[in-house]
Amino acid sequence: MHTIAAEITVQWRSAMLRFAMLHLPSREEAEDAVQDTLAALLQLDRSSFDAAQAKSYLFGILRNKISDRLRQKYRAPVSYDEAFQDDLDQVLFDKRGHWVEGVAPTTWVNPQQQLQNDQFFIVVDLCVHKLPAKPARVFSMKEFLECEAEEICSTLGITKADYWQCMSRARKQLQLCLHQNWFDKETAS
């Protein structure tokens, strides 16, 4: 697992750091979040890890690490008991801990579509990183970190009007960038 982890680290560390620096106030915090993510990779059971899914796994964990750091600054602590008072496990799993029929996650089996999706999201990532810093942060927190508008405003210290202006500008610039770098290229081929 360590050789696989080393290869994955070389391949994805700089992209993860760029993503983390977009959201966290200092480079040190961003590097800490990336290091925590890579440490989680080392703790994985080798038999349960699929190297082809490394990007999804790493960025999913990184997203959670970033969200945790941002929430830690701006929210009151919640006890473990309060956080897990719902009965979601009873809805998703039977008494033996197996998935209830009809709610288990399914696997996608179309590799061609998955490759195209991966390529599309590479272009989306490049387009987001071309945005000015403030709209990029606001858009990324909303769409990638799934934060609510109020949380984004309080985290970044901006007004609601500023939030909506940033989202509007980001969407327009992303639309233009994707049109030039993805959709026009599809129709040309």
TrEMBL record:
Top-level taxon in the UniProt lineage: Bacteria
Keyword annotations of the record: DNA-binding, Sigma factor, Transcription, Transcription regulation
Listed InterPro entries: RNA_pol_sigma-24-rel (IPR014289), RNA_pol_sigma-70-like (IPR039425), RNA_pol_sigma-70_dom (IPR014284), RNA_pol_sigma70_r2 (IPR007627), RNA_pol_sigma70_r4_t2 (IPR013249), RNA_pol_sigma_r2 (IPR013325), RNA_pol_sigma_r3/r4-like (IPR013324), WH-like_DNA-bd_sf (IPR036388)
Pfam families listed in its UniProt record: Sigma70_r2 (PF04542), Sigma70_r4_2 (PF08281)
Family in the record: Belongs to the sigma-70 factor family. ECF subfamily.
Protein name: Sigma-70 family RNA polymerase sigma factor
All copies of domain RNA polymerase sigma-70 region, residue ranges: 13-75
Domain RNA polymerase sigma factor 70 region 4 type stretches: 124-174
Family matches, as PANTHER family: RNA POLYMERASE ECF-TYPE SIGMA FACTO, RNA POLYMERASE SIGMA FACTOR HI_1459-RELATED
